UniProtKB/TrEMBL annotation:
InterPro entries: Vfa1. Signal peptide: none annotated. The lineage of its organism: Eukaryota, Fungi, Dikarya, Ascomycota, Saccharomycotina. Pfam families: Vfa1. GO terms for cellular component: endosome. This is VPS4-associated protein 1. One of its GO terms (biological process) is vacuolar transport. It comes from the Eukaryota.
Amino acid sequence: MSKPQPQQQTPPFPNKYHVKLVSSSDSKACIICYKPSTTVLLADGNGDFFYVCPGHLLDEQFASPIHPQEYSDLISSQKELTDKKAKLEKDLEMEKPYIWNTVAGYWKDKKEKGEETKYDKLKKELGEVTKGLEDKTKSVNGYKFKLYKLHQDIYKGRIMAHQKKVYSVQRATKIQQEGFFPSVPSHNLE
Ligand SMILES: [Zn+2]
């Protein structure tokens, strides 16, 4: 026999699940609501997997996405643009009284020369930044995460289910082994 296993401290699989999709003909019941689902969560290293509706992945009581660098970069550029937009809006507000106080002639003169006023420039820039921010926000909101971490309780449940399965397999193997139960006498039975 193999040497005794040391007490296992590390979990049988990490709390790091890849999102996989199967074809609709391969859909199976979601572990939460039992509706057929084509989304599979597969533990890193393939130690565990289960089917789940993609909607449950939005519930933090079930799982949270693990943010890849690409997503963190999106978030920081979204923040940058948000700050830039706020600053431009403030600058534009500051420019406004200037316009109203400007001598009409000066204003008209600038316009006729086709020169951009500071206000025009800021307004244009704000338009560009706003558009950029909208695009970034769209990318952030529509971001498809490929890795999830299960909520601690759900993860514990997965480990328990795994251990139960391992135990029942071991038990079934033991029962099949000769001598685990006294053998049934093959004679003297009524
Ligand atoms: Zn479901």
